[in-house]
Every structure is written in C-alpha cells, then in structure tokens.
Write a sequence for this structure.
C-alpha cells in the first residue's frame, strides 16, 4: 500500500496534467483536500500557483488549502 506522501505526489501530478480533462484535475484537487495534512496543503498551494490551469481550478485548490490550514 502506498504511503500518504506517494499519494499526494500522484494526485498533484494528476491535478496539474493538462492532458487530462478539467473534471479529472478537479477530482484530484478535491482528493488532496480530503487528505488534509500539511503535505497536501503545500501541494494544493503549488497547484494554485500553476498559471497554466483554469482560474477556477486554481481557486478550488486555494480554497481547499485554506480549509486544511
């Protein structure tokens, strides 16, 4: 079973992969918010800083990071 750190990294990669559909990226962002630890919050802040994503994806990542913090 993969540890939380590996899961966070996989979800972060999925959330920032522009070859996936936006709803798949949003699900990855929500899953990171559900993990709810410091590492997930930092990953969400990195996602929110990614200018290549749609603004609503970045806002979702930022709001999930706020919920954790």
């Amino acid at each position: 079973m993969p540890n939380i750190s590996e899961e966070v990294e996989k979800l972060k990669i999925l959330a920032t992969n522009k070859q996936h559909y936006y709803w798949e990226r949003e699900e990855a962002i929500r899953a990171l918010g559900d993990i709810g630890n410091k590492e997930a919050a930092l990953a969400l802040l990195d996602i929110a800083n990614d200018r290549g994503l749609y603004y609503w994806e970045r806002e979702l990542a930022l709001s999930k990071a706020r919920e954790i913090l």
